Amino acid sequence: MSRAKLFGSLCGLVFLVNFARVIFAPLVGEFIDEFAIREGTAGLVVTLAWVGSAAPRFPTGWLLTKVPRHHVVLASGAMLSLGAVFLGFTDGVAWLMVGAFAVGTASGVYFVSANPFISELFPDRVGRVMGIHGMASQVAAVVVAPVATVALWYDWRYAFFGLGVLAALLTALTYVLARRADLPDVDVAATGFLAAARSEWHIIVAGVALMGITSFVWQGLFNFYELYMVAKGLPQATARNLLTVIFAAGVPAFFISGTLVDRFPRVQFLLAVIASFVCSVFLIVAASGLWPLVAATTLAGFTIHAMFPAADAYILDTLPDTTRATAYAVFSGGMMLTQALGSSAVGALVERGIAYDAVFTAFAAGLAVLVAVFAGLDRAGRIPG
Known about the structure:
mainly alpha, single chain
């Protein structure tokens, strides 16, 4: 029961951590208007939040060989609170970039420390608990557009002030519950950081290539989704609501995928999920009119979010205890650095006059080739795990 209560507080923290990363997407238009910037600069702001999420993952992996997992989780909560309050006082685009990087950094520290910690709290059902944890994260993505809409009635900065206060309260609660919980006995210094990375390089490279490039496409798609839908002829309010739809579809996806991945061969399941996401992107490009776009949006939201618990279960359950935290940190850092470039890439291409349809068609085609390559490697027995 003590572990279950601690897990509940971690689900609350991951809600706030993910909220801090995705809140920038529905505010892109507001940033363009308030700070008199163009799409490329606005995309850079979003990219910095995700680069911030990637940047601390390697040093955090090293830290986890020295410090208990839950201590690092608590530090990430404190960082999130301070970074959010800083954003609340932002009055220029340069400081906005700094704040975006700061809250992104807090999220990176959290995921690298919390995901291995949760897999060790419940070692007999890794996929299921990662699915529930991811579902809590995804609820934040669902509510982010309505919260941004309400905040914009007054000032978008209020969303960050509220985030900072809630993060401080939940971090304090997690500290109390961790002190009372029966924590797993893990030797944090079992394997050094570099030794862990070298010994598990096959699965790290495979994970970064497959999940990183898929997430690159996803980053570019969802951060410009509202503007993309407006370009397809939808009213701005409808376009913003479709952003909510794409995130709402991910709530059941986390739970369903987390449950199924424990029952099927994990590599094949993961490839099937990513292939379905590729199909959904092609459908979005081809669709016109509200209801076809709603259907394609729902499919895209479900399939991409089904990938995350499947990927985490595959990586975390394949890695041995002695290298799990550090090797996972290297994998997630490489994946995040790859995906973080998606927003800047889309913003730069659109700013040069390339249509959204052309950009996302090219992205989906490249991802389809990657899935085909991995399917061939899997049939040849060359994929680790």
